[in-house]
Amino acid sequence: MQMDRREPVVVIRPDELDETTVVARAQDGDLDAFEYLVGEYQGKLFRLAFRMLNDRGEAEDVVQDTLVACWRKLPLLTHAQAFGGWLYQMATNRCLDTLRRRSIHPETIQEPATLEESAGCTVSGPEAGGDPARAAEISLELDGLAAALETLPPTQRACWLLREIHGRSYAEIASTLKVSEQTVRGRLARARIQLAEKMSQWR
Amino acid sequence: MALDDNIPRLGCGRSIDEVWTTIDQPPNAHEQDCDQCRTARASLAQLSEATRTMRGHDEEDPGLQPRSAVKDAIMSLARAEVRRGNRIPIHQVEQGVIEVSEQAISTVIWFGADALPGVRARRCRVHPDYPDIADNPGPPARTAGLTVDLRIAVATGTYIPEAAHRLRQRITGMITAHVGLNAGTINIVVEDLYDV
Amino acid sequence: MSERPLEARLINSDLVADLAARAALDTPGVLRLEPTLKNLLAHLGAGTAHILDRTRTDSTPTRRDGVFATVHDGVADIHLDIATDIAYTALTVAQAVRVQIARAVSHTGLTPGRIDIAILAIEHPPAATEASRPKPV
């Protein structure tokens, strides 16, 4: 009864499938599918949380909490196509909760950290092209924007990051923050004004 | 939050959104003459540039990833809480029962479907054809058959009846060969199309 | 404790669980034993009930990762959760496991009782990269 073990084995990896199929299999308990999704989203969620919270440790907590909750609640997700938006929603709400806790316990307020200090990274990526002057300029631009972001009210910051850095739709952001799309547009416009003003001061 | 809904306007009456959406275009006649528009355009252009930089930089920066311990922790928890679905009794004799998890059978079905071009197997439910098998122990040995409910996506341009026929044959073959059971009924629902 | 029959002290459920695990892992097509949290709790529950039911016997349930064994009145009952290799027929593998375990239990002098097997996963074995990897010079 043993199978012919020389039968050609076609193993399709999750990255060869569309995301909705991978999500559906993860919903039915496929750990390989889930692990692929963790790999796909952990960086995105970390970048959102890091820019929301400006703290690596807290950002990692948000990523871990979100993806653990994701595994537990996956069977309840009715539209596998909505997976990405659902994850962003859970992560955003965790970030906002963290900020709320900070405002209740103000002793945990962070020193505004520049990217280099907190992320341990240097700006020498491809966009600098090995040009030290351009790298310095990028570094200044990033620090200026990051510092300006810190001054935004949390929900405005979430609106701005979700739309401008993560490219999420107005409808999705509205449903994440439980407000109308018009409110999202209003908050975004206000966020842009404040960021632009702060950055001019920075320079 | 009605206040939140308003798009702020410059003193000249132009809305910030109008300025923002045309930031990459040359200034119009009004914007060339209006001081407020010129100032707003300059600072928004600077923001737009910085936004682009952050978008590109953050995505590429290896420092803006969680440590590998985070993924390890997530996966060990998922493994500890793994969902195998229902356990289906498939063989019952006096000496004991053999069960197989719904998830194990789904794995076999997905694996079989993956070998067929133009078809992607998604959610899968499996039921025993003899749900009472566990309640009727004793010889002669009984082996269950299975009913499979499978949702699939097909590639655009696929002739669906033929694809479904091939998929049914494939699943029947896979369940016989890899699980050791008969698949009685295989219900297939096409829920989506995908582009190739 | 000292009132237990000699046999129970000679061969306890720990040993039976070990034997069953070894017999299963030696059966071709078995990838591993498959412990799960839910299982563990379910079996702990069942085990507790067992103990209460049989307070006058020598039953002491033992669970290993993926194996659960009880011994009472010279009879060993075993439950086993396994993952099998997709290259094999899972039901055939499970039946072979049962035969192997029954044989191993018989060698202890105990009588094999119920041997329940749950196939929780059917998978490809982890890629055999070790063999193809060039040896360091």
From TrEMBL, chain A:
- Could you tell me which Pfam families the record lists for this protein? Sigma70_r2, Sigma70_r4_2
| CDD domains tied to this protein | Sigma70_r4
Entry keywords, A to Z = DNA-binding, Sigma factor, Transcription, Transcription regulation
Where does the record place the RNA polymerase sigma-70 region domain?
37-103
InterPro entries in alphabetical order: RNA_pol_sigma-70-like, RNA_pol_sigma-70_dom, RNA_pol_sigma70_r2, RNA_pol_sigma70_r4_t2, RNA_pol_sigma_r2, RNA_pol_sigma_r3/r4-like, WH-like_DNA-bd_sf
Pinpoint the RNA polymerase sigma factor 70 region 4 type domain residues: 145-195
Tell me which PANTHER family the record gives.
Answer: RNA POLYMERASE ECF-TYPE SIGMA FACTO, RNA POLYMERASE SIGMA FACTOR HI_1459-RELATED
- Give the family this protein belongs to, as stated in its UniProt record: Belongs to the sigma-70 factor family. ECF subfamily.
Protein name per Swiss-Prot or TrEMBL:
RNA polymerase sigma factor
**Taxonomic placement:** Bacteria, Bacillati, Actinomycetota, Actinomycetes, Micrococcales
Automatic annotation (TrEMBL), chain B:
**Superkingdom in the source lineage:** Bacteria
Protein known as: Asp23/Gls24 family envelope stress response protein
Q: Which organism is it from?
A: Arthrobacter hankyongi
UniProtKB/TrEMBL annotation, chain C:
The highest taxon in the source lineage is Bacteria
Q: Which organism is it from?
A: Arthrobacter hankyongi
The protein's name is Asp23/Gls24 family envelope stress response protein
